[in-house]
Design a protein that fits this description.
189 residues, mainly alpha
Length: 189
């Protein structure tokens, strides 16, 4: 019985010259890295570009990995940095189109929902994603990691390279800003 190599072993094998190790590592984490990129960038094209930049950066900087954190934490941080770099370059505007997989990216719709409920949830997901694009990238990244990806404050802090208290305050400020931006959704109740 053969066991799968760990992420750290794959990264070390890549640094040691194994041509396939990095591809295996990326395949293992592709869905989660894409999820982070699409939620931060909002547009699939920008997310794909940021993710490609991140993979190139991780490929080139693999030898610099110190092992202070998990390989996944290191990869998530590289993806977030690539997203932030791209956001700074393109100065994302709030009027950009929503991603095609809005429902899936926010986990609102369920396969068991009736069409009317699915339509309402889809519209709600679109509103939330549009509002997320109107808050700052630091707050957005913290909210994506904690509220959408399910990371703890400590895990998100390691990924973002800041203190857990900073993540907590970014989430708090981001949620407060989202509450204002989405206030109109409660006015009909």
């Amino acid at each position: 019985m053969t066991t799968e190599p760990t992420d750290a072993q794959l990264l070390a094998a890549h640094v040691g010259g194994d041509d396939r190790a990095f591809a295996i590592l990326m395949e293992r984490h592709a869905d989660r890295l894409w999820s982070i990129a699409i939620r931060v960038m909002n547009r699939p094209e920008d997310a794909a570009d940021a993710l490609q930049d991140a993979m190139i950066s991780a490929f080139r900087r693999a030898a610099d990995f110190r092992g202070d954190a998990a390989v996944t934490t290191w990869l998530h941080r590289i993806v977030l940095n690539a997203c932030f770099d791209r956001l700074r370059r393109i100065k994302v505007r709030a009027a950009e189109p929503l991603p095609e997989d809005t429902e899936r990216s926010l986990r609102f719709a369920s396969a068991t929902d009736d069409p009317e409920t699915a339509a309402v949830r889809s519209a709600l997901a679109g509103e939330v994603i549009a509002a997320l694009q109107r808050i700052g990238p630091d707050q957005r990244a913290a909210l994506v990691l904690v509220d959408l990806e399910g990371y703890s404050m400590d895990q998100a802090a390691r990924i973002l390279g800041c203190a857990p208290g900073t993540v907590k305050s970014r989430c708090s400020r981001g949620r407060a800003r989202l509450a204002v931006l989405l206030q109109h959704l409660n006015e009909g109740d």
